[in-house]
Amino acid sequence: MAKKLIIIMVNTDPRNGEELGAPFFQATVAAAMDYEVEVVCTATAGRLMKKGVAEKLVVKAGSPKTVYDFIKDAHDAGVKFYCCSPNLDLFDMTEDDLIPECEGIVGGAKVIEEIMEDDSARVLTY
After folding, report:
1. Does pTM surpass 0.90?
2. Is 38 exposed, middle or buried (0-12, 13-18, 19+ CB in 10 A)?
3. C-alpha dihedral sign at 100, 112, 33, 120
4. 8 A C-beta contact, residue 121 and residue 7
5. What is the pLDDT of residues 58-99, one digit of tens each?
6. Domain 4-125 falls in which CATH fold?
């Protein structure tokens, strides 16, 4: 039985708020079900790990809950967030620019190795 869920956010575009709720909500639910959960933000979704970005986004217009609130809920439930290393250069970021909920920076090799070597892991992509 799988014990770990890896969510890769690669196709999710922060400019489309309605795309952002499901991955964070599902990560929170999986963590509440006692699964180990990691969310790797890469490509355009990597912007979500930069301070000040997710705080300005909502899933639904008029909602008082920001995307950053969804990230904090997931983190509080035990979800670990990572930023893919190319995003630092792509979005002119440094480690100091990352939100406190981001555990750190990972490269593509680490992600691929974890997926290929850990038979107890399952992957969702958004």
Report:
1. yes
2. buried
3. negative
4. no
5. 999 999 999 999 999 999 999 999 999 999 999 999 999 999
6. Hypothetical Protein Ychn; Chain: A, (3.40.1260)
